Amino acid sequence: MTRYDLTRLPLVEPLLRNRWPQFVTTSIALGGFVFAIIAGMVGTPVGSRNFGIVSVWIGWWALLMLIAVPFFGRGWCSICPLPAPGEWLQRGAVLGPSTGTGRRPGLGLRWPNRLRNIWLQNGAFAVIALLSVVVLTTPSVTAVVLAALLVLAVVMSLIFERRAFCRYLCPVGGFIGLYSQLAPIELRVKDPAVCACHTQKTCYTGNADGYGCPWQVFPGGLVKNTFCGLCVECLRTCPHDNIAINLRDFGADLSNPAGRRLDEAFKAFIMLGSAMAYSAVMLGPWGALKSAAYTVGSAAWVIYAAAFLVFIFVVLPGLFFTAVVVGRRLSQNLAENSTTKTRRPEGKRQAFIALSYALVPLGLAAWIAFSLSFVFANLSYLSAALSDPMGWGWNLFGTARVNWTPYLTQFVPILQTIVLVGGLIWAGATAQRIAEETSKMRSLPVIVFCLIVTLVLLGLLVG
Amino acid sequence: MTVALAATTIAFAPVPAATVTPVERHIRIEAKSFEYSPAVVTVNSGDRVTLELAATDVVHGLYLDGYDLNVTADPGQPARLTFIADRPGAFRFRCSVTCGPLHPFMIGKLNVGSNWLMLRAVGLAALGIVFVTQRCRGAGAQRNL
Amino acid sequence: MTAKGAERAARLTAIVLALGLPVAALIARWAGWGAGRDSVIEIHGALAEAGGWAPADLTATVGEPLRLRLTSDDVMHGFAVGQSDWPAVDVAPGEVTETTITFNRPGKYVFYCTRWCGVNHWRMRGTIEVAGPTTSPAIESPPLYVTLGLDLDAPHPADVIPERRPSADRGAEPGATIPVEFSTGEYFRAHSPAEVWRALRASPASRELADAEVWDVVAFVWRSNSTPESLVEGKRIYAANCAACHGETGAGNGVMAASLASQLTAEFGHGATKPADFTDPAKMLGASPALLQGKIIRGGMGTGMPYWGPILTESQTWAVLSYLWTFVMD
Q: What's the CA gap between A217 and C324, in Å, rounded?
């Protein structure tokens, strides 16, 4: 596996080390974020003409799912405006680290051990997913959700230390972390031996050049992208210039058995299941389903919500578990003749968790394919929303009257096919590799599971 | 090598010409509260198709993907769209007049002849599976040796 | 730059970048930029169920332009002022349409939605009170049905039905001269086709004609009281305002008929009245123009038929009526 350290390029390292570029970018993003909230609250209630809806669910979402996550992993997190105000308060400085006034209003509590996982994120995503059809289409609801997340992030920053919100609560951060394992970019140490000898661990504690890791990660121990927010504080604090931003192969983290966990495995199911459900609800031809998903609180919605939850938490993992069990049986039958049985009771669970990581590329492909469907069809709304963000009849850039025009409708299905088939092959290869780690597994049933999921998605999006 | 050849064949093999005699088709599609009815319309490749859009609650539209055709209809004033369905495949049609909150998700589908893209996709998916499993079996066998 | 200076600059940057845009937008709004002058009234349109027009009651002064900025908060609507020549404008969701109206005569005008927006579309109305010097108050003559003392709600079946569809073309041919009293507008408007048929039948002038041929003459009388232009105008008005309930073919089976029925049942509890079937000869040939005009002007009183009095001009009602009879007569 080849890696290329981008910090070796001219300009990259100084641009990352300097606090201003990241700070200004985050502030601009915060401006857009606050503007989206204001637009959602006081602008037109027509979603397709409201900056809040259009900028977030078409503009930002397209950037995130089609570019940021696949190519930069947690790149978005490094400039995300959501935790910024809370973090500034927590630090007593907006630029830092040595520029602050020293007043730090936060309590700085440790995050409870029991919650040091992403189950809360899984839950937060599921809750928003159940309301998504309303959130996506109603400016005021989007504004409330965005504002609530902002307030929550501030409160979390003031109660707990570092970026507890990002790591344990942010509904978006959970899946960005999951899929960042696929990104061709990573932050790692150049030489672990240097870290081992460095007793002060300034990357975790911070120094005059930067803060200790906000994500509560020790860079020297990084093997996966999942919880590294790419904030590059460690690059600033490392006295030995031992931090690298590497270009690497896509999906490099998946072949690393370390750090596989049940909460993350379920994140993979939640994401894959949501992409399938959304493709049916939002892009399918079934009006009753759309209405059920929209009328939050009605009996139809309760049924929809229950079905949705059962699908992502029970049906999909259940089928997958069956596939894993069948895979183990197959390999045992083959092995029975030659070797002795080494069947451990916890083996199934471990195999289930490990093989779930094959769903990471499958899930990302599903989300990209799903997003392609509505992003290009509705991209033209951006022109109007930029010129007349509130629907007040402004025409800032002369594009307020641009009519809705779907783009690339002939090519989107072809792109979706390529993405979905590519995701399947990637998932299949990943499953094979993971199965080979223990050699007590047959990956075929899991690959068949991936094939069925892909065919369902193809049927919904392309068929 | 074989796999690459097979994949190329599946992806780019020319579509056989339609064998069904084209006919004239008149299809009335009612549009109401984020749903078309019928939501899935099937015609043969080459048919001369007239879609009659009848809105039954508020003003709706119908934009046909791939053919880049658009029509809008007020309740009581159905509008027609006539075209030759000369491009095979599955094409989404979407509401083109904001008709309420779920407007962006008001989607139906026109099937024209066989959906070759879908067939190619299934073929490529199957081939991909074969490729992945064979390659690894090969690798495994080599390792065993 | 000192650390303190850098932090101060950063704080300023953060505040400007994070809040500058939203605050600027709000200031621009309050300062009225885009909205322009204070004399402009911004009107939001929404489904009648969601409140209709807001504001719905406007005031204006004769001779002074009334500037409006119209926008829709949900679906496509339209805006027009009843009994006036100002062209209707579309009111698109989330977009702003500006229009200016100047009234020449004082009075109470009704503005209304021109694009069908559901079964309660016609309830989406507002008023404009136009003040001004009442030098010469227009003499409003009451509608004909009032003058004639017609009971609009009484059944009006035709007591005689033609065997074949009457045709004005055929009616124009026969040598039978139409007695002059049948040709006047006053007579025509006060009598149903069936009544005219009976009168013609009894007239010695049509002694030679078969019953069906007399019906053709009736059709000719009806056509003589319309013009090709009024038929075109009537057809346009019908398509835009009537077809959603009464059907494009006039059969009373428009796309709104079903939801109208369920709404009426919910509202009044009684079995719903269906939209009138204009292809039914018994109904159409038994009604005089004055009667049908009365129904249009007054509305259906609980049947879901809107009152068009404040909206359609008298000539528009005659135009749409002349079109209605083409559903039973050629």
A: 79
Q: What's the CATH architecture for C41-131? A: Sandwich (2.60)
The distance of B51 to chain A (nearest Cα, Å) reads 17
A351 touches A445 (CB < 8 A): no
CA-to-CA dists, residue B38 to A238, A457, B52, B76, angstroms: 64, 22, 11, 18
Contact between A194 and A148 under an 8 Å Cβ cutoff? The reply is no
Kindly state whether C239 is in contact with chain B, defined as any CB-CB distance less than 8 angstroms: yes
Contacts of B101 in chain A (CB under 8 A): 47, 134, 137-138, 294
CA-nearest residue of chain A to B107? A285
The answer to whether C9 touches A94, Cβ cutoff 8 Å, is no
pLDDT for the residue B12: 83
**C-alpha count within 13 angstroms, C-beta hemisphere, residue C41:** 18
Q: Rounded to 5 degrees, what are φ and ψ at C31?
A: -70, -10
Domain boundaries, chain B: 1-17+115-145, 19-112
Q: CA–CA separation, B115 vs B68, rounded Å? A: 18
**Span C83-95, pLDDT tens digits:** 988 899 999 999 9
- What integer pLDDT is reported at residue A341 of this predicted model? 47
A428 backbone dihedrals φ, ψ, rounded to 5°:
-60, -45
CA A38 to chain C, closest CA, distance in angstroms equals 7
For chain C, domain boundaries: 41-131, 144-327
Q: Tell me the CA distances in angstroms from A160 to A111, B65, B135, one per residue in order.
A: 6, 50, 49
Distance CA(A372)–CA(A380), nearest Å, equals 14
Distances in Å between the Cα of A335 and the Cα atoms of A327, A345, A375, B135, B144 are 12, 18, 49, 21, 14
Pairing mode, if any, of strands B48-55 and C41-45?
unpaired
Nearest by CB to B118, which of A283, A444, A458?
A458
pLDDT digits (tens, 9 = 90+) for B31-79: 999 999 999 999 999 999 999 999 999 999 999 999 999 999 999 999 9
How far apart CA A368 and CA A65 sit, in angstroms, is 6
Dist CA C165 CA C219 (whole Å): 9
Residues of chain A contacting C34 with CB distance shorter than 8 Å: 392-394
Distance CA A359, CA B135 (A): 20
Architecture of domain C144-327: Orthogonal Bundle (1.10)
pLDDT in tens, A403-456: 899 998 889 999 999 999 999 999 999 998 888 887 667 888 999 999 999 999
Chain B contact set for C120 (CB, 8 A): none
> Which value does ipTM take for this structure?
0.91
**Sheet with C77-81, edge to edge strand ranges:** C57-61, C125-131, C107-112, C77-81, C89-91
Which residues lie closer than 8 Å to A116 by C-beta, 6 or more apart? A168
Across the interface, do C71 and A35 touch by the CB < 8 Å criterion?
A: no
A residues 130..149 contacting B (CB < 8 A): 133-134, 137-138
Residue A102, CA atoms < 13 Å, CB-side half-sphere: 1
What fold, for B19-112? Immunoglobulin-like (2.60.40)
Instruction: Report the side by side order of strands in the sheet with B24-32.
Output: B35-37, B24-32, B48-55, B79-84
Q: What is the pLDDT of residue C1?
A: 61
Q: From CA B125, how far away is CA B135, in angstroms rounded?
A: 15
Residues of B in contact with C242 (CB under 8 A): 76
The 3 state secondary structure assigned to C66-101 is: EEEEEEECCECEEEEECCCCCCCEEECECCEEEEEE
Using the Cβ of B20 and the Cβ atoms of chain A, whether some distance falls under 8 Å is answered with no
CA distances from C305 to A357, B76, C264, C276, C309 (A): 63, 15, 11, 9, 12
Same fold, C41-131 and C144-327: no
Cβ-based neighbours of A207, under 8 Å, separated by 6 or more: A97, A237, A239
- Of A130, A139, A145, the residue nearest A301 (C-alpha): A130
